[in-house]
Amino acid sequence: MDKLCHFEDCYIERKDEDHDILIGACAELRNEEGELIFRFPSAWTDEQIKTALKFANDAYAKGIGVGMQRKATEIKACIGL
């Protein structure tokens, strides 16, 4: 199944108030290469962030599925099926 990323392959980096004047304190979900996946309010717990990632992974997988179905429909139309 397609996923945006696996929680087990990510880490949460918490930033204090001084990190950014516009963002303030936050919790950043980063992948194994350190790339930012998403930024959450600092009050969010690790479990809440994990739940949000599960939701994002579900939405990502559904989007991939819809895209594949649409592409199959286009191909069938092109070859007259």
Count of separate DSSP helical elements: 1
Output the strand order for the largest sheet.
1-2-3
Largest sheet: 3 strands, antiparallel
Instruction: Give the strand content.
Output: 15-25%
Order of helices and strands, N to C? Answer: EEEH
User: What is the mean predicted local confidence, pLDDT?
Assistant: 87
Helix share bin: 40-55%
Assign the structural class, choosing from mainly alpha, mainly beta, alpha/beta, alpha+beta, or little secondary structure.
alpha+beta
Our count of domains comes out at 1
> Could you give the distance between the termini?
28 Å
| Low-pLDDT segments, ≥5 res | none
Name the shape in a single word.
elongated
Cα gyration radius (Å): 18 Å
Give the total of beta strands: 3
In short:
The chain has 81 residues and is an alpha+beta fold. It is built from one helix and three strands.
Which characteristics define this entry?
81 residues, alpha+beta, 3 strands
What does this molecule look like?
A hairpin with a 5-residue loop joins β2 and β3. The protein contains 1 helix and 3 strands; from the N terminus they run βββα. It has one domain. The longest helix is centred in the last third of the chain and has 33 residues. The protein is an alpha+beta fold. It has a 3-stranded antiparallel beta sheet with strand order 1-2-3, with no helix packed on it.
Secondary-structure blueprint:
Elements: E1 11-15, E2 26-30, E3 36-41, H1 46-78
Antiparallel strand pairs: 1-2, 2-3
